[in-house]
Amino acid sequence: TRMSSKDAIGYASDEDGVKYEDQGDVNPMSVMTNFYAKQAQWKEAEAKQKKLFDGVKKRFQDNEATWKPFVKKSFVVKFSLMGVTPLIWRRLRVPGSVTLRSLADKVLIPSMGYVRNYHGYVFEELPSPPKKSQYEFGLVYGPTKSQAIDMMQAGMYGYDIFDDTQVCLAQFLRKPGDKIRWTYDLGDNWAHKIVVESVEDEPPKDQPEFAVLAGERAGPPEDCRGNWNFADDLKIYCSNKKTKEFHKISDSFNNSMNYRDKKGGFRPEFFDLKEAQVRVFNALNSKTSAMDDSNFHHHFFDGITPAHVPQPDLQTRKPNTCRIACSEIPCQVSSDVHERRNDFSTVSNIILVKLKYLCR
Asked: 69-98 burial, b if ≥16 CB within 10 A, otherwise e?
């Protein structure tokens, strides 16, 4: 593959004194030099990450006497979407012992009406730890093994992710006013705030330890570009003026993953407390999401296929082996296209293969 010299990190001359820059090619020696330089940077990054993780472990060990008593307590928190008015919020009851993984997967996502096992997320302490505080500046908590497609964005924001199965709510929140930020879908960046309203020794009599107590307005549609774009689009959507932009936004909202099958579509002012409670109850009584991005595949394959394109009969078609573009990786196309994959490149190949068959 040829690359413009402007894309090269460094330039060099060959033995005849002809600059590769003039030829429009990249000097292979320059590429190798930069590769080894990158290796050194990767090792440095790994050492920094270890320092970060050791720092947070030490902090929790040193402060164990502070947070340990709150593990058995019951918290009432207000969970809200930031930067959008009128406010979209939920009041939740959760125990201090809940891990951040279970909190996100089984409480936050279903209570707001998002789709489980679809996008990645991270938790961030508020206020952020100072730069010299146990080397923890820039550290967030999230699913370290998630295969959600948007998790590739995590590094772009400078995130070092600590496994959220190893920490619980009481390690961060202990008194009214304490807060933590939760960012859902790292591609769109849906920013939420979780604020403690009250802390009790135990839930009221005959009340479950997990509960959706109240809320207002419908959670945002999936894949609608984050808080501030959503706030702007919502004004147009609520104006109900039948403009080209209104129809585009309406189509995006009502065909989103969490509203396309919902009766009445997306209604911003609507919140059904009972429905939210049922979603959380069902999530709590199910296994933790596999974090394998399977719902992305369902949405991607089922949502973009034009009606006029004939569908391949994957149930009866025999598995085929084909090669993807220049890749030498054989991909088997079968009915189980949603099978869990261990690396993102394989998932990308599966998507390309499926699209190739859909367009035949």
From this structure: ebeebbbbbbbbbeebeeebbbbbbbbbeb
Within 193-272, residue ranges assigned H as helices are: 226-239, 244-254
Strands 320-323 and 330-333: what pairing? antiparallel
CA neighbor of 81 nearest in space, from 115, 101, 108? 108
Q: Are the C-beta atoms of residues 222 and 114 closer than 8 Å to each other?
A: yes
Nearest Cα to Cα of residue 320 among 306, 333, 303: 333
What pLDDT, on a 0 to 100 scale, did the predictor assign at position 31? 58
Q: Position 316: which residue type?
A: T
Please say whether the beta carbons of 153 and 188 come within 8 A: no
* pLDDT at residue 110 is higher than 80: yes
Tell me how crowded residue 274 is: count the other CB atoms within 10 A of its CB. Answer: 8
pTM of the model: 0.69
Cα distance between residue 223 and residue 188, in whole Å = 7
- For 182, the 3-state DSSP assignment is strand
pLDDT in tens, 214-272: 999 999 999 999 999 999 999 999 998 889 999 999 999 999 999 999 888 999 999 99
Phi then psi dihedrals of residue 181, to 5 deg: -100, 140
